[in-house]
Amino acid sequence: MKNIFILLFLLSATTCFSQARFISSGRVEFERKYNQHSQLEGENEGPWIAEMKKIYPKMLTDHFELRFNNERSVYRLLKENPDNKYLWMGKPSESDVTIKDMTKGTISMQRDVFEQTYLIQDSLRQLEWRITDETRTIAGFECKKAVTKICDSVYVVAFYTDQIMVNSGPESFSGLPGMILGLAVPRLHTTWFATKVELVDPTPAQLTPAQKGKKASWTQLSTDLNKAMKDWGKEAARILWTSLL
Predict the structure, then answer these.
(1) pTM of the predicted structure, to 2 decimals
(2) Which of 85, 183, 184, 207 has its CA 20 to 30 A from that of 33?
């Protein structure tokens, strides 16, 4: 009887490991945190700035979901946080949705920028990731740290797990040998971390949401924004980086 219990335990452990090791479809919930007082940095700390910091909370928290299988992923806002109070250019849009087709290597991203809705259709960005030996446990998964840059100078830190064998992650990020469960962009004072991973198969409808907007490439969006914000100073850079995440 003792040997039977040992055998059942080993079989159960092996099954759990196999399930965790070869996840190819599911749903991830992400918590995004943003320090919106960073928008006031560099301003003279006068009465107006002090009052703004009292009225508007320093940290904003929003929740997103990523549904995926081994061919496709869809990332969007899960629900609006009623406790948030946004300064400007910080509120996520419920209509924004990012679709990555890993088999074709393409991205289709609907994003509201100012008063314009864009539909960015382009290749998945080929980022030069550097994988390190540092690890971190996120949502129960051991993740490896990787770093890269966007827009030539904006440092990005990611934590990915090869236990979820899908090349995707929050926003437009991908390109690592597994799912990105943690992300930080220090210059934008923003982090994304998975809080829950569910082993559920997405439906065809969930992986093919309707999209609309002015069609553009990454290059066209960047050109449009630079033209519109040519006299905005340093604030233009922050908006550009945020729009290109």
Answers:
(1) 0.87
(2) 207
